[in-house]
Amino acid sequence: MIALLSLILGVARADEGMWLPEQLPGLSDELAALGLELPPSQLADPAQDPLAAVVSLGFCSAAFVSEDGLIGTNHHCVSGYLSYLSDAANDRARDGYLAGSREEELWAGPAARLYVVESIEDVTDAVLRRVRPRTPDLKRREQVDAAKKALVAACEAQPNRRCRVASYYGGRTYRLITQRELRDVRLVYAPPYAVGSYGGEVDNWEWPRHAGDFAFLRAYVAPDGSTADHAPENVPYKPPHHLTVATEGVAPGDFVMVAGYPGSTYRYRSAAELRFHAETVYPRKVAVYTELVALLTEEAAKDPEAAARLSSPIDFVGNSLKYARGMLDNFEKSGVVARKEAEERALTAWVEAHGGPHAEALAELAAIEEAERATWARDTVAGWLMWMPDLLGATHTAYRFAVEREKPDLKRDAGYQDRDLARARHRLEAMDHTLWLPADRRVMALLLRETQALPADARVPQLDAWLAAQGGVDAALERLYAAPALAGAEARLALLEMDRAAFEASDDPWVELAVALEAWQAPLRQLEREREGARLRLQPLYIEALQASRGGHFYPDANSTLRVTVGRVEGYAPRDGVLHLPQTTVAGVVEKAGPAPFDAPQRLLDAAPGAPQSAYADPALKDVPVDFLSTLDTTGGNSGSATLNGRGELVGFVFDGNYESMSADWMFDPALTRSIHVDIRYVLWLLDAVEGAGWIVEELSPAH
Amino acid sequence: MIALLSLILGVARADEGMWLPEQLPGLSDELAALGLELPPSQLADPAQDPLAAVVSLGFCSAAFVSEDGLIGTNHHCVSGYLSYLSDAANDRARDGYLAGSREEELWAGPAARLYVVESIEDVTDAVLRRVRPRTPDLKRREQVDAAKKALVAACEAQPNRRCRVASYYGGRTYRLITQRELRDVRLVYAPPYAVGSYGGEVDNWEWPRHAGDFAFLRAYVAPDGSTADHAPENVPYKPPHHLTVATEGVAPGDFVMVAGYPGSTYRYRSAAELRFHAETVYPRKVAVYTELVALLTEEAAKDPEAAARLSSPIDFVGNSLKYARGMLDNFEKSGVVARKEAEERALTAWVEAHGGPHAEALAELAAIEEAERATWARDTVAGWLMWMPDLLGATHTAYRFAVEREKPDLKRDAGYQDRDLARARHRLEAMDHTLWLPADRRVMALLLRETQALPADARVPQLDAWLAAQGGVDAALERLYAAPALAGAEARLALLEMDRAAFEASDDPWVELAVALEAWQAPLRQLEREREGARLRLQPLYIEALQASRGGHFYPDANSTLRVTVGRVEGYAPRDGVLHLPQTTVAGVVEKAGPAPFDAPQRLLDAAPGAPQSAYADPALKDVPVDFLSTLDTTGGNSGSATLNGRGELVGFVFDGNYESMSADWMFDPALTRSIHVDIRYVLWLLDAVEGAGWIVEELSPAH
Q1: Who among B576, B579, B587 is closest to A576 (CB)?
Q2: How far apart are CA B639 and CA B258, in angstroms?
Q3: What is the ipTM of this complex?
Q4: End of a domain among B139, B158, B182?
Q5: Which of A385, A578, B388, B659 could be stapled to A447 by a disulfide with Cβ–Cβ 3.0 to 4.6 Å?
C-alpha cells in the first residue's frame, strides 16, 4: 500500500535512498521528522564525525570504533582473513579468534587492506572536458577513460593512496575519491562461525535472525605513523575520528542510519532488462549455483582441510544462490515487474510530452540492451569459466597483465595497470589458503560441460577448438589437473612476470586455455567499449528523463561509493497472519540451539540465563537484544557498516537484508524491504559475558 | 511465563478446561470477566439454547443452524461421506458438492448418523451400587460393566435411541447420555477439497491457516416426524433448537466458546507415562506412519480411482503422523515432561502429607502402567495389524461378533452386542468406497514384517505359527490377496452371519488369520479386564489426590462427551521475533495460491478482489476474515463444533489446533495452545460470492 502510494506520487521516501552525503542537507525536513539529531550539514561532510570514521575493506564497509584504530565490521567480512589464518591445527574459520591482548592480534594477510577516505571531489568537468556531442562512441569512451586514468594516476602519485573516479547516474557526474590505503590489518576478535553465522545458510537472508555477525580488526602503521607493510614493530593507527558506542540501545520506531559502501543496485534499469532477469538470468543462476553448492559441499565433507578451505567459497556461492532464488520469489511477491512497467509508462509519457532527444536515446539504449541479451547465455558461461575455477582465473588474469603490459600504463585496461599488480599478487598468494584441487576440478568440469551444452549459434569457437585438440572435456580435465604447477603460489606468481610471447608459446595446458579464451574475448571487449561509449552518451539523457518523470528527490544507483541511508527500527508483515517483530533476543538464540548450523557454543548457552540481568539487557525486552530490523536501504557492500542512532552513536552493524529485500536491488518496497543489524548490546554481552574479552569492551566503551 | 504462573498457582485458568456444562455456573466470575453475556446457568443446560443445538456425527461435533435441520460441521468431518459419494465420474472428495435445492441434497450413506442429546443423567450410584471396597478387581469390573450395560439396554429399549454410560475422572462418576439417532443424513454443501482443506498436509496443524473447513448437512425424518431410515419421501427434521448467525464477527480479544465432543486427553496421566510416550510411543508411531503415508501416496498416484478411495485414509494417517511428530517437537518446546514432573512432585508431597490410602493406590497404579509398557511394542503392532488392513479388520470384527454371540447379549463385550450390529454392517458396506486392494496389501505387508521384527520375548506365537504354515510373509500375502472373496461387500456381510464353529472350521486365509490373532488376544483381554477393575478401584483415589494437591477448578479428561470450553480470540508468539496474528484474510488465500495443496479454485480467486467491498468484510481487517485463533481448549472430536460468541451466536466452526497445541492433550500451555476456527463470514462469503449458494445463505441468515 505504502509502496503503491510512493510509486503513484513518484517521490522517494527518505528511507528509500542510498544518498550521497552531500544530498542530506536537501532532506533536512525528512531527516528531522525521522529523528536525526545531528545537523544534516555535519552528516554531509565526509571529513567530520561520524562519516570520517567510516572506512572500507575493499569489499565490505567498516568503521573505526576506538582512538587506537580498532575497527568494527561483520564476521562474514573477515571470513577470507579467517580462512587465511586457518589450518588443520587452528580452524579459526570455525572457532573464531580472540586476541588476549594487542600482542596477540593476528596479521590478516597480504591481501588485507583498509581504505580511509581523505576527500571526495566532483571531477565531472575534468572527465568530460574533451568530449563533444558528436564524438564517436569508441572515441568518447577512450576520452573519458583516459581522463579518469589521468586523474587517478595524479592522485596516486601521492604515496600510499588509492584513488578512484566513480561515475554517478550513468555518467552524468563523476567524483574523484582519494583514500589512504593501510596495509597492516590485524584480527582482534572474530566470534566462532556458529555465533557469527549462527543459522548458516538456513538463516541467511531470513528473519528472525540470531547471528552475532560482527568482528574487530585493527589497522597498524609504522612507528612514525606512516603507512607501512606488515611488520612486527608497527603500531596501532590513531584515526582522527572514531565512533562512540551509544549508551542507550535502539527500540522499535527509533531513528537509525548507516553510512557505508553499497555495491550495486539496478533501480533505473529498464522493464525489459528486469523481465529478462526474471525469466532468464536468475533462473539460470539458480540452476548452476545449485550444482556448485552441491559439489563444493560434497568435497568439503571429505576432508577437514577441504572443509576449512572451502568454507568461504561455499558461503559465497550459497549466498548467491539464495539471492537468485529469493530474487525470483520476491519479483512475484512484490509485483516488481508490474511496478517497473508502470514506472516505465510514466517515463514514456514524460518523454512523449517533453519532446527533445530523449525518445531517440531511450530507443538506442533499448537496442544495445537487446543485443547484449542475445549473447547473454554464451557470455555468462564463458565468464564463469574464466573466473570461478581458481587456477584458470589466475592464469587468465596473468595473461591479461602480460598483454596490457605492452601498452603504456595509462592506456592499459582498468584493473591491469601497474597500480593493480600488488593486489593481483596478493590474491595469487592467498589462493594457497582457499585452493582445493578436487573441488577446483569439479567446478571446471561443470563449467566446461555447460559451454559444450550451448546451442550452435552461441559457441566459443576458440574453446571448442582447444577442447577438440585435447580429445574432449574429460581428456582436457586429465591434462589440466594431472600435476598442475600452478597449485603452488610461486608458480602462480611467476606467471605475473611472463611476457605475452612466453604465454603464447607455452605448452602448459592452463596457459593454452587462458590464451584461447582471451582470443575469443578480446574482440568482444572492443565491442563492449563501443557500447560503453554509446551509454556514456545516452544514459545521462535517460536518467534526466527518469528523474523528471518521477519528480522529488533522486539518488544515484549504488556504485561502491560512500552513501548514507536513513530510516527506523521497524518490523514487517511477511505474509497474511504473521508479524515479524523488529528485535530478537538471547532467549531466541537458546530456542534455536541444536545441531549445526544452530550449534551455539556451550559457553554462550551457559551464559544465556544471566543475560536478562546483565547490563546489556533491554528494559522492554527484558533480555539482551541480538539482531534488529530497520527500514534502511542497503545492499551488498554495505555489510560491515556501522549502524548509528540519531546522535551518530554506534548501535550496531548492518549485515544482511531480509528475504524480501533482495528484489529491492531492482525496486525498493517500503512495506517489505528491511535491513538486518546485530545490536551493539549483543556484541558487548558476547565479549563481556561469554568471551571474557573485557579489554575490548573497555576499549569500546564511550567513557574510554 | 503465564504457563509457569498457572502451574505455580496450581489453578486452571478458565480457558484451560473442557468443562462439563454443569460446572459452568461455578465459573461465573471467570466467564463474566472473559465476556460471556448469557447467564452461565443457561449455558449449563443441555436442553436449552445454545447447547441444545449441538449434535454429534459420532466422530465429529456439529450443530443445527436452521429451523429446517440444516447442520454445520467441518469439511474434514464429511470426508468419509464425500468418498462414499465419489466415483470416477463424480469426484466429490475433490470437487465438493453444492445441492442446487433441497431436492438435490445427497444421502450421505448408510453409515451416516446424527446424534441429538436428549438427556444427561448422573448414574454414579446405579453403576457402583453393587461394588464393595473389597470386591475383587475382575468382579468389580464385571459389576460396573453389567450395570452400565443394563442402563444402556433400558435406555435403548426406547425406539431410535442411542445411549451411553460415560465414565468421568477415571470412574469417580458416571453419566447416562440419551441421544436420539437420526439415520437419514444428507449432504447439502461441501466446498472443494482445495478450499475445505486448503493447504492440505502442508498447512495441517499450522498457522497462518486459510482453510474453508466447513460443510453443511441436513437431517431427514419420516413425513410424520419420526426417525426413519433413508427414504425419498423423508422430510427435513425440525430441531427444537438451532443456532443463529452472529450479526457481528469476532475481533481480537473477543470472548468465544465451543460446545462439542472432545475425544480424549491425557491431562492426568503420570509423568512416567508421559516420558514413555516421549521416548517410545510417538517415535515408533512416527516411524511406522511415515512408511504408511509414503505407500498410500504411491498407490494413490497410480490410478484416479485409487486416489479417490485413498484420499481419506491418506489424510487420516498423515494427520496422525504430523500429530506424533508435533507431539515430540512440542514436548521439547513446552518443556512438558519437566512441568509434568513438577506437578507430580506436588502430588507426591500432598500424598505424603495427607496419609490415607492414596500412596498405596498410586504405587499400584504405577505397577500396572509399568506392566503395560513392558508389552507395548508387541500389543501395538498386533493391534495395528488387526485394525489397519481393511479386510483383516472386517474379518476379525465379524469373528468377534460370532464368539460373543454365544453369550447372552448383556454379557457380551461392549461393541459386540446386538445393538452394535447395524453399525458394523454399515461399515462393511461402506468399505466398498474406500477399499483399494493394492494399498491394503502393502499395508498388510508392512505390518506383518513389523511383527516379524519384534524381539523373541515379544512375539505373537499364534501369528508366527500361521505365517510359518503359509511359508512365510510373502507366501501368506500371495494367498491372502490372490482373489479375496471379501473384496465384495456381500461376502463381508455374510461374515456377520457365520457362527463361531464355521469361522474355526474355515480354510479361508483371512478367517484363519483372524482366528489365530484372536486366540492370542482373548486371554490378554481377560488380563486387561482385571487391570480395568483395579483401575476402577484406584483411579478415583488418584484423581482425588491430584485434585486436592492442585486446588482450584478441576475438569475431567475428555471422553467424547459434551463439553464447553471458553476463551478469547488471541494470537501467540511461536518463536522469538515472530507474532502470529489471530486472523487471516481472503488476501492471504490469494497470497498462498499456487500448485496443490494451494490450488484454490479459479472462481474463488476471481471473487477475491471483491471481498473487501463485500458485506462480509471485517471493518478492521478491510477484507473478509478466513480463519481465526482462540485460546480455547479443544482436541480431536471437537472438530465441527460451532464456535459461539458471548451471546451464544454462531461465529465459526473450530477445525484444528495450532502445531503447538498438540502437546496440550497432555498439558495445556496458555502461552502456546490455540484452537483454529473458520470464520462464519468466510463461510457466508464463499457461499454467496463464490458458489452462488444464496439459498443456503438465506436459510442461515439470522432474520430467517
Answers
A1: B587
A2: 10
A3: 0.83
A4: B182
A5: A385
